[in-house]
């Protein structure tokens, strides 16, 4: 669907979405993983993608969104089904698991009354917190703490240096080393 968009995984826990027509900066930075991103797969629709990380989680991102909308645990690889309604994951216990790509979506026939109730629920924005494992939650807190410390250190260096000697660089442009034509 979107042949000009692609995503690149990085070992700095982020994925970078690019537009092939404009490679000087990333279109979006997806940054929810806690460890190096190992695998990316797009469904045929091209509106979202699934990533798998060394932290043993799978996350589903919109191609232009910064944060994941779904998270699954204890997996080593992941792929979308051909109709983009399921994510198939493999784990080190030699099992394949089938996950719904949209966890809140009901399978089967939906009655009009149920559809109306579901729309009301979505409008009220009353989503419950996803059940994140303790280790993943604690690792996320540690990662945010480290990122905040790095930002404070950079701000202090900038404050105590000559004006203009340390210009701010966008996170989108941060990972582009060299563009070859």
Draw up the topology in text.
Elements: E1 5-9, E2 15-19, E3 28-30, E4 37-41, E5 48-53, E6 57-62, E7 70-73, E8 77-80, E9 86-90, E10 96-100, H1 112-124, H2 134-159, H3 171-174
Antiparallel strand pairs: 1-2, 2-3, 4-5, 5-6, 6-7, 8-9, 9-10
Overall geometry comes to globular
Helix/strand/pairing class, anyone?
alpha+beta
DSSP E strands, number: 10
How many H/I helices? 3
Task: Give a summary of the structure in a few sentences.
The chain has helices spanning 112-124, 134-159, 171-174, and strands at 5-9, 15-19, 28-30, 37-41, 48-53, 57-62, 70-73, 77-80, 86-90, 96-100.
Descriptive keywords:
three-stranded antiparallel beta sheet; alpha+beta; Lipocalin; 181 residues
What does this protein structure show overall?
There is one protein chain. With 181 residues, this protein is α+β, with helices and mostly antiparallel strands. It has a domain at 5-104: Lipocalin (Beta Barrel), CATH 2.40.128. The chain has 3 helices and 10 strands, in the order E-E-E-E-E-E-E-E-E-E-H-H-H. The chain has helices at residues 112-124, 134-159, 171-174, and strands spanning 5-9, 15-19, 28-30, 37-41, 48-53, 57-62, 70-73, 77-80, 86-90, 96-100. It has a 4-stranded antiparallel beta sheet with strand order 4-5-6-7, with no helix packed on it. Strands 1-2-3 form a 3-stranded antiparallel beta sheet, with no helix packed on it. Strand 1 and strand 2 form a beta hairpin. The chain starts with a strand and ends in a 7-residue tail after the last helix. It is found in: Nucleus, Nucleolus. InterPro entries: Quinoprotein_ADH-like_sf (IPR011047), Sof1 (IPR007287), WD40/YVTN_repeat-like_dom_sf (IPR015943), WD40_rpt (IPR001680), WD_repeat_DCAF13/WDSOF1 (IPR051733). Residues 148-157 have a biased composition (Basic and acidic residues). Its main location: nucleus. Keywords: Nucleus, Repeat, WD repeat.
